[in-house]
From TrEMBL:
Lineage: Bacteria, Pseudomonadati, Pseudomonadota, Gammaproteobacteria, Pseudomonadales
Organism annotation: Stutzerimonas kunmingensis
Superkingdom as given in the UniProt entry: Bacteria
Residues forming coiled coils: none
Residue span, HTH lysR-type domain: 7-64
Protein name: LysR family transcriptional regulator
Gene Ontology MF: a single term: DNA-binding transcription factor activity
Length: 296
């Protein structure tokens, strides 16, 4: 360890060239150093390794047994360093075999992952995508440890120490089954409050949401009779019952539901893509992010 503290990269590079050339003058030419500079480096190396390393011979300098022991591991170490500091290679999606892990709720799966999936599969057919359960309290740690590459989350409540890119702003609409007798037109506030409604409660069991906050400013309450944890189940409930729900607009596009404007404005939210600084400049990760942005 003490020897490592005394070494610097220039000394190791000089030793590598000296072991290849067996001549101080030729080594100086290859390194673009002066001959005295190379001699100074050699003197420092001899002191560090407590070995002459190169001794005079009939045709230049001859490596000692210690120098011969150093030759191969030194070359491998320098090659590894060269590879480590080389510019990142351009990402080739056609040849890539990455496994990307994306944390998302069922809303994020439907509104973001699904629209991007066909393009990702077409451009990078040998890659794989793992969509993992969204656990908001663990996003930052998962991203830092490399357990996830991306998280799809609302801007509100997202960890401040992660990079983000806003993908879109979502709004709410009122939805029910096709042909629902009370959704032939936009209901009044009183009619809306009288409807039996279902709500998505990601934390489980809640009967209060942004719609209820908006109604409270008018001194009104609605009838929430069912609370479910996932949007996918909620859509099935709407299709098979007379219950109605306030749903993110992107979830009802292309779905056989009756959709009308709500009788009051409900604050929407911004959806963002989150990632850790450790992956920010990685060419593969940059490509993945751009694919998602372009698909939304």
């Amino acid at each position: 360890m003490n020897n490592l503290r005394r070494l610097d990269l220039n000394l190791l590079v000089t030793l590598d060239v000296l072991l290849a050339e067996h001549n101080v003058t030729r080594a100086a030419e290859r390194l673009n150093f002066s001959q005295p500079s190379v001699s100074v480096h050699l003197a420092k190396l001899r002191d560090i390794f407590d070995d002459p390393l190169l001794i005079p011979g009939p045709r230049g300098m001859r490596p000692t047994a210690r120098a011969e022991e150093l030759r191969e591991p030194l070359r491998l170490a320098l090659e590894a360093l060269e590879q480590a500091v080389a510019p990142a290679s351009p990402f080739d999606p056609g040849a890539a075999q990455n496994v990307w892990r994306i944390a998302a709720s069922d809303y994020g799966e439907s509104a973001i992952v699904l629209p991007a999936l066909a393009g990702l599969r077409s451009a990078a057919p040998s890659t794989r995508i793992a969509v993992v359960e969204m656990q908001p309290s663990r996003i930052a740690r998962q991203a830092e440890q490399g357990d996830i590459d991306l998280a799809l989350h609302t801007v509100d409540g997202s960890p401040s120490n992660l990079r983000r890119r806003v993908l879109f702003t979502e709004r709410y609409v009122l939805a029910g089954r096709a042909g629902h007798p009370h959704l032939r037109r936009r209901p009044t506030l009183e009619q809306f409050c009288a409807l039996d409604q279902v709500i998505v409660s990601p934390d489980g069991g809640g009967f209060h949401g942004a719609t209820d906050d908006a109604l409270a400013t008018h001194g009104l309450q609605r009838r929430v009779v069912l609370s479910v944890p996932h949007f996918l189940f909620l859509r099935s409930v709407l299709e098979s019952t007379d219950l109605v729900a306030m749903l993110p607009e992107r979830l009802v596009q292309g779905v056989a539901l009756q959709v009308v404007e709500a009788p009051l404005e409900i604050p929407g939210y911004e959806m963002a893509m989150l990632w850790h600084e450790r992956a920010h400049r990685d060419p593969a990760h940059q490509w993945l992010r751009e694919q998602i942005v372009n698909a939304i």
